[in-house]
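User: Here's a chain of 145 residues. Predict its fold as tokens.
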Amino acid sequence: MSSLSDALSTLSDRGLRRLLGARTFLRGLDYEKRKVVEDVSVNESSAQGRVKGSDPDPYEVAIRLGGEGITSSCTCPAFQKTNQHCKHVAALLITVRNKARSQLPRRDAPLQPQQHAPMPQQSNGADPREAGVATVGDANSRHHS
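Assistant: Prediction complete.
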């Protein structure tokens, strides 16, 4: 995996929203889900792709990872006007991130016996939940404050 893929694979949706802005992120996510990102190629520090938008011809999109973070370019009118990440850039970022994540080896949770604190005994036999003792989780993993 490239360093761009490595970096993107660690980005959460929240991180992408911060990078792109909520509106751009959500519109890019919609494009990614509709599978309109095509011809994606990724190398060590950049990725390119074509994103079908409202124009008959797909937009050419590129992202780069450098000293200044993630920079981008797109042939759509919005990017040309604002020179900021657009929904097509967002769609490519999300696509590359998801592809990188799908190539990571699955890490299963280690199988370790869990230790549980014993339930406090009530002298009146009442259920501890009714006595104001906080419980979290199911009956096998209760922890008390």
